[in-house]
Amino acid sequence: MHRQGRQQSDTDASSTTSECTLLTRCSPTRFLRLCSQLDERKHEAIRDMNFGGLLSIKCKEVRHNICLWLIERFDVGLRKIQLSSTHHLEVTPDVVNEIFELPMHGRILQVSSNPSEHPFGRIRDCEDRLRVLPIGEEFRRAFTWYACATILAPTSRVDGCRNLWHTLHGDEFRNDINWAQYVVDELVSGIRHFQQSQAAWVHGSLVFLQLFYVVKVRISSVQVPVTMPSIVAWTDDLLKIRLQQELRDSRSFGHGEVFEDVPNTPSDVESEDSDELRQQYDAAQRTINEQLTIMQRVMRRLHSRRRSSAHAAGSSPTAFPSSPSFSHAAYHGFPFAEHGTSPLHPTNFATPGPQTSQDIPNMQGDAESAEDVMPLRAMMVPQAHRRSRTHRVRRMAQSLKSPFVPQPHTRQSAIPMDLKEAIAFVFNTDMDPSEELVSLYGTHLTRGNLGCFEGNHWIGNEVMDAYCRFLQHEDSGSTKLFISPYLAEIVVQSKPKKLAKDSILNQYERFLYDTAIPYGQVIEVFLPLLIKNHWTLIVFDLYKLRIQLLDSLGGRKKTHMTGAQNNLAKVVLCLMAHKKGGGEFNLERFSFVTPDVPSQTNEHDCGVFAMKFMEHWSSGGLTKSIDPTQMPKYRLKILGNMLLSQHNAHRTMFQK
User: Fold this and answer.
1) pTM for the full model?
2) What are phi and psi of 81, to 5 degrees?
3) CA angle at 163 for the pair 161 and 169, rounded to the nearest 5°
4) Cα dist from 96 to 179, 188, 208, 221, 229, whole Å
5) pLDDT digits over 88-129, tens only?
6) Using CB atoms within 10 A of its CB, is residue 411 exposed (0-12), middle (13-18) or buried (19+)?
7) Which of 64, 155, 341, 402 has its CA 20 to 30 A from that of 547?
8) How do beta strands 524-531 and 480-482 pair?
9) Are 229 and 101 within 8 A, CB to CB?
10) 483/290: higher pLDDT
11) CA quadruple 288, 293, 294, 300: dihedral positive or negative?
12) Under 8 Å CB-to-CB from 82, ≥6 apart: which residues?
């Protein structure tokens, strides 16, 4: 299962990797051996889980030389691989979806340490259970854990990740997880540990890491067909030839042609202000998914009827006509990628049942597994004993944006012109810094206060308090409650020794904002905390009895609250119990966790991270990804939201 890092047989390969040992439990061979022992019904269940792309893996070996070379150049802070001073590869969930065809939308998985009622065993025990378990919820959860333990997110433990097992078997778990993001997060975490501790074990999916490189860095002397997912085309022999050829041509890795995708989602378009476009894009995705699902069901029913009628008549059903193999490249009207390729061999569609994943285009990352979808021309059944001439119905392909063909698009500014002018007006140093520019929901900010949004300044208490008020009143139908950071400041500075209920209500109830939200429907309470010039966010989940510390600084995860955090928890829970009018909250029943969140790349963006966490954190995960490289844009967006809010008394100053 684990092997010591080996050097390339070529003499030049030794210059591409350092003399170190690499151990991994990433084992596609073991995964495929188990899958080969499962029947077709279980394979179909795996496809329904959106894990069908893993069944198409052909690359079983982990090439240690390229993995070590990539790990040495991996920037875990920016999540990119620096190939040279001018070229880098960003590791994103989109690439995981392209290679493994895993879902890249949904909740961020938060691994809990709380035990479940299901006993935890070794990987071998899980294999035995998967062979005999009937198709059901227990089979799906066990297979998900097994896939993570062997391919997607393996650890150094021989029995896999215990906490992940209990998380997947928890009563509240539902499979709407962004698994592509989870693969990226675990790989980055494993490489960070490997780089910092100089350990021999590397956690994370190294098979993804090596395929990511050869898919994105191409050489003209090796021809590879374009398939969806990408793992369909790559075998062990092809990967070995590809790496050896690059070493012969360039004497080291990183000298191929970096393939950069053309933006094909609203989030990649240069117009960064694209919330409305994203909503339209997501709505179109859902519509396509529904149509594909309906088509799959209809084809299955037609196929079952034809089979039953054929058996009743004592003959076999008419076979489908031969059709050339269908690939993502052929679908869009271009043959191959820039590797240079050879034609794919034609494939006969004998029945309209499920096809192999190399024959099916990936229509959608988070759609239902597309193994059952067939091109329209393959679904046409010839009429028996028909003498008249038949005509094929030809339809124009949908105008889908291909990552291989440049798409015309209008270059737009990331920030509207009225917002740019407003920001220039705010940051004008020649004007009075005491002039009031924001007045909304009982808070007032001057030009001097808003100057913290410019450049690399820290976010001040006044601005954080104003943004908490802004979020509280802008979404009146939410189940979130935001508390002023001044409450945390007073509690931390006073260091109270005794926190009686009466004293808590007398001293701290005034820090709760006036809001139209009934306290009875409040589920999550958000409290920004500033300690030693560093902002963090404490989230109290009153439904799941969980206290979450969101810290963009990263580092070692905390397992216990500090004294100040413990006092804050007592104050907040006492206030909530009083406002809700029910029983008291017992702090001892709350679990304390520090979820994995995006990390800041400098020392001054912690306040902006806390603001974005308040905006997008819900039910134990981020509802929208946060890009650490976009902090300057986030600063201006938050400032613009307050300046141009219809409730800002000075809004007319920033309108044309």
Assistant:
1) 0.43
2) -105, 120
3) 105
4) 9, 13, 7, 25, 10
5) 888 888 888 888 888 888 888 877 766 666 666 778 888 888
6) exposed
7) 155
8) parallel
9) yes
10) 483
11) positive
12) 73, 75, 88
